[in-house]
Write the structure tokens for this entry.
Amino acid sequence: MKVLVVGGGGREHALCWKLAQSPLLEKLWCAPGNAGIASVAECVDLGAEDIPGLVAFARAQAVDLVVVGPEAPLTLGLADACRAAGIACFGPSAAAARLEGSKIFCKQVADAVGAPTAAWAEFEDPGAARAYLGRVGAPIVLKADGLAAGKGVVVAATMAEAEQALTEIMEQRVHGAAGARLVIEECLVGEEVSLFALCDGKTALPLDAARDHKRAFDGDRGPNTGGMGAYSPTAAFTPALQAQAMARIIQPCLDEMARRGTPFTGVLFAGLMLTAAGPKLIEFNVRFGDPECQALMLRLESDLLPLLRDAALGRLAGHTPRWRDEAAIVVVMATRGYPGAYINGSEIRGLQGLGEVTIFHAGTRMVAGRLTAQGGRVLGIGATGKTLAEARAKAGAAIARIDWPEGFCRGDIGAVAVEG
């Protein structure tokens, strides 16, 4: 098969790395890719949101399957355009991608099937939202309705934090048009996990779960980021809880999307809170998480290509993914200043001979023979082990040998799980 992966981050590097191992693969491209992806796929100078350009390339190269990594091209209709051109695409239509593109739509679908989720309210008027905050108090969660690169959610512990978030999202529009509408919801208590399910419009096939770390600094301090690390599996998310989440959340919502005439094809990523009353839905994403995808690909034993192909073609029934009996961890190295202002172009050295780790590139570029950082999140240091403690030790030893003074990372990814 000839495959085109769309995107240029750590998630796409992990997908390309895994797809490149498939005996079914004839040729692999990635658009636009990055310096690390170039080692396993041919990078194409096309932006992830260049819908006409991507479809034209896929047609010219007789691509058999397009695999879309980020959410933005999905909400812009890349999957629709591919299918209209007769090209199989792993990813939902623009209509189905609203599950991530609109927090309000996600909540409406969950409510329609009685899927357990946090109590919520929606607002277009900042004054009404502020009055509601005054009635419900803190802790409380505020979410920009639209896409905000994973940074549109604020968990406010105090009323002052809630007021500031409301002002920034709705009045200062720090996330642009994404903040035109606001969701204010109950702050759920428990352990958060990310559950992924491959979907072909009717069948939902659970993959394993992972735990993400969103805050920038150790101890879950600092601002929210796109993700500073992840590990898999998660001991708290037992097979019984997974079955409950599939039966009460994933499958009913998949059925509801089909009933609405917008069947969901691709990967459905459910952010869950494991509460005392069972798993509750925090939100849906319509693509693999980043960096959860990296951890999952390190553990996936099955060939990824036929799974993605058959999801795109509506024939997932009968598949059973196999997983390595190992723990996996990914620690993100980011440019100092992230998720705020940072400076691009610093050189990264020392990535060779790091031992039993896999380096996933997110924001890198080769400039005059030098590997440089070109983004906030730049590298993902992945490792596996018989235990999570062993995987953490391998990743930590490799990070200590990387020569990048302008970079930083959290030192406590997975620590709570290891320490019990």
